[in-house]
Amino acid sequence: MRDGHSDLMETLLPQLALDLSGPAPAELGRLFDVPVTRVHLESGFGGGEHLIAMALADPDLGLIGVEPFVNGMAKALAAIERHGLAGRIRLHNADSVPLLDWLPPASLDRLYLLYPDPWPKKRHWKRRFVDRANLDRIARVLRPGAEFRFASDWADYVDWTLARLLAHEAFRWTAATADDWRRPWDGWPGTRYEAKALREGRVPAYLRVERR
């Protein structure tokens, strides 16, 4: 990690990190230093490319980013400082599950899970983030009509995720044509994981489901 990034982990991260030891505010907009009209969460933001792009594209949007790995968090902190986004971003540098359990019901306008670890070996499938318990958690924190968006370059994990979403009574798949899952949604900035997948010949898929 660069020296500057290390300094941000010690100075900026404590300012932006969510404190889960107490109750969450009933209105998530209170987490931020400036007024926001909507709140999105990205679980496992990697290097932060998508998180930062969302913040830059919409000045009324509040964002919660989750990333347990130090290097990814440090890169995101550097971008947050560079673009002056600290007022509208809050961070959690650990697993998403405690955060999802902490958030109030029906408090998020969108949740992203982009290129999660696919755990490709069958004996590791139980470690995949998408399971019934976590979909229950996601459904609880999304407002009616809000979206859960998922992207992956592992066809098996895409099939796995879609099967569980279709079986869950809280979600409705909104796709009408094949292009609705073959092409990224509007405003997609791309990520380094996506670029690597394309270089290696894997084709990403982009799923969108609506909270009923």
Helix percentage range: 25-40%
Radius of gyration: 17 Å
Give the DSSP E fraction (strand runs of 2 or more residues).
Answer: 15-25%
CATH superfamily: Vaccinia Virus protein VP39
- Detail the poorly predicted runs: none
Order of helices and strands: HEHEHEHEHEHEHHE
What CATH architecture would you give? Answer: 3-Layer(aba) Sandwich
The main sheet comes to: 7 strands, mixed
Mean pLDDT: 96
Would you mind describing this structure in some detail?
By secondary structure, the protein is an alpha/beta fold. It has one domain (3-211): Rossmann fold. Helix content is 37%, strand content 21%. The protein has eight helices and seven strands. It has helices at residues 3-16, 49-57, 70-83, 96-102, 132-141, 155-167, 179-182, 192-199, and strands at residues 38-43, 61-66, 89-92, 108-114, 142-152, 171-173, 205-211. Strands 3-2-1-4-5-7-6 form a seven-stranded mixed beta sheet, with helices on both faces.
Q: How would you summarize what this structure contains?
A:
This protein is α/β, with parallel strands linked by helices and 212 residues long. The chain is 37% helix and 21% strand. It comes from Prosthecodimorpha hirschii.
Architecture blueprint of SSEs:
Blueprint: H1 3-16, E1 38-43, H2 49-57, E2 61-66, H3 70-83, E3 89-92, H4 96-102, E4 108-114, H5 132-141, E5 142-152, H6 155-167, E6 171-173, H7 179-182, H8 192-199, E7 205-211
Parallel strand pairs: 1-2, 1-4, 2-3, 4-5
Antiparallel strand pairs: 5-7, 6-7
Helix pairs in contact: 1-3, 2-3
